[in-house]
Amino acid sequence: MLSSWLQQPVKIREVISDDIFEPAHAEYYDGPPGKPLRLLLQARSDFLSIWRASDYAEKVSQIRILGRQVVLVNSPELIRQVVVKRQENFERKSPQMRRALEYLLGDGLFISDGETWRQRRALVADIVHMNRVPAFGPIMEKTAGELVERWSRMPAGTTLNALHEMAGLTAEIIARSVFGNQLGEDSANAVTDSFTSYQSLIDSINLGYFLGFDEGLPVWRTPSLRRSVKRLHGIIDTVVEDHLAGRGDHNSMVELLIRRQQRNPELKLDVVALRNEAATIFMAGHETTAATLTWAWYLLSRAPQVERQVHAELDRTCGDRAPTIDDVPKLEWCKAVIEETLRLYPPVPILARQNRKADTIGDVDIAPASLILIVPWLLHRTPSLFEAPHEFRPQRFMAGRRPTPYSYIPFASGPRVCPGLHFGLTEAILCLAVIAQRFRVKVPEAHKVEPMCRLTLRPRGGLPITIEPR
Ligand code: HEM
After folding, report:
1. Mean pLDDT over the full length of the chain
2. Number of domains in the chain
3. How far is the CA of 414 from the centre of ligand 1 (A)?
4. Would 280 disulfide with which of 1, 108, 255, 306, CB 3.0-4.6 Å?
5. Alpha carbon of 214 to those of 43, 105, 367, 368: distances in Å?
6. pLDDT tens per residue across span 208-248
7. Cα(7) to centroid of ligand 1, in Å?
8. CA 380 – CA 73 distance, rounded (Å)
């Protein structure tokens, strides 16, 4: 039952022995059930800390928080019901997500629904579609190459923050892909800084929703929030206007959006709509891949046998030349490491929806405008779905083995599945390969990793690493 959510901070543990590596995960609290309001406040600072051992099970359960019904769906068949079979009733994002991001993204795809979502989904999905990913390969190769060149000028044993390094890398890749190569270093840095500061300034829980406002309440636009949004919108508007005036990079995603609008004027994409979609792709495609790569370094560093397999595969496949996008389909170990990383540390650990009409999931009747939670963090670690669920075992994704349908959903599933899935997977595998070919990345033995979640799942305080040339 969800009402068994815990009420005191969770302890994190890590198990390392010769052949087993259980990466950092919650050591569950199984005392008396938590008080709903306290859980809400706890979830606000860290969403991972509220679960108990009994929540890692295939079931549907519910709780009331200040009169609002909250339903946790943690069974593959019922998840399918929510995200596919009755998708129309469950397509809306939760009010907290919509309210938190609307100032930044407007009606951008990530938080839109209804007719706007349907129209824009086709457009954005086409722009980041798997067929287009090879065209962005050179940007990924070049940007990852620049990072290894920069690292190679540092003395062996240099200590870095992996989260910071990976965020810089993926921000650069997505910025060059979305806005084109002419963005310039200062503007690219300003875009990344503004997104980061926006995310740190907004609240992930909308109290108004729990107090009875079905649409939640608008977030308070503080002067610092206004400043980051103004700066960001200003830069993106300039890029869009440059492209509209024919001065943009012809291979950028903004250019593709504009061409689609010119061919299909009924889309009615004005400068603001173009900005909203460009900002959405940037935001959705940046932190998620950075978090994936950061967690992959942590896992590899604690699992030397897997690390050896990755290095051997890279030596076999690429020899001395740098890996390219054409190598990605051949890198079975690198792919399995990324897939297993996404299982243990899904960058989007919670998918939150608001149902339009009354409905029933399993044996739970759901009132309109309730909060429906699908939590990949719990699902991916449910023992009946994954053997030794807390262990790092990339082999479970190799030799044609696949998880039960709807039990593994790091990119969500159904019509709202991540449209950047192929872009993100390819980028993560390629960046891992380019870096692992040249460096051994180590997380200090004594470092205790603590996963935490606000919008995305990341190690609290970043991840210290030392880099050694191979
Ligand atoms: C490893 C990397 C990535 C992960 C794990 C990931 C995961 C997700 C998830 C779980 C969602 C659904 C969220 C929800 O329903 O609440 C989503 C949506 C989305 N993602 Fe990704 N993503 C990744 C990379 C990317 C990239 C690289 C792009 C763009 C190039 C992208 C663009 C989007 C967009 C536009 C949406 C909104 C789709 C919609 O609502 O219809 N993502 N992503």
Report:
1. 90
2. 1
3. 12
4. 108
5. 20, 21, 11, 9
6. 998 899 999 998 899 999 998 998 899 899 888 888 888 88
7. 31
8. 13
Q: Ligand 1 pocket test: which of 112, 287, 418 has the largest number of ligand atoms within 8 Å of its C-beta?
A: 418
Q: Is the separation of the CB atoms in 285 and 424 below 8 Å?
A: yes
**CATH code, 173:** 1.10.630.10
For tokens 């993100």, the residue is: 424
Domain region containing 348: 2-469
Query: Which element (helix H / strand E) includes 391?
Result: none
Q: Looking at ligand 1, which residue's alpha carbon is closest to its atom 11?
A: 418
Atom of ligand 1 at shortest distance to CA of 423? 27
DSSP code of residue 370: -
Does residue 350 contact residue 406 with C-beta atoms inside 8 Å? Answer: no
User: CA 112, 117, 119 angle in degrees (round to 5)?
Assistant: 150
Residues with CB under 6 A from ligand 1: 109-110, 121, 124, 128, 280-281, 284-285, 288-289, 292, 342, 347-348, 351, 410-412, 416, 418-420, 423-424, 428
CA distance 70 to 72: 7
Give the 3-state secondary structure percentages of the chain, helix then strand then coil, rounded to 5: 55, 15, 35
Question: Largest Cα–Cα distance in the chain?
Answer: 64
How many of the other CB atoms lie within 10 Å of CB of 448? 10
What are the pLDDT digits (tens) for 127-172? 999 999 999 999 999 999 999 999 999 998 899 999 999 999 999 9
Residue with tokens 């495609």, as numbered in its chain:
285
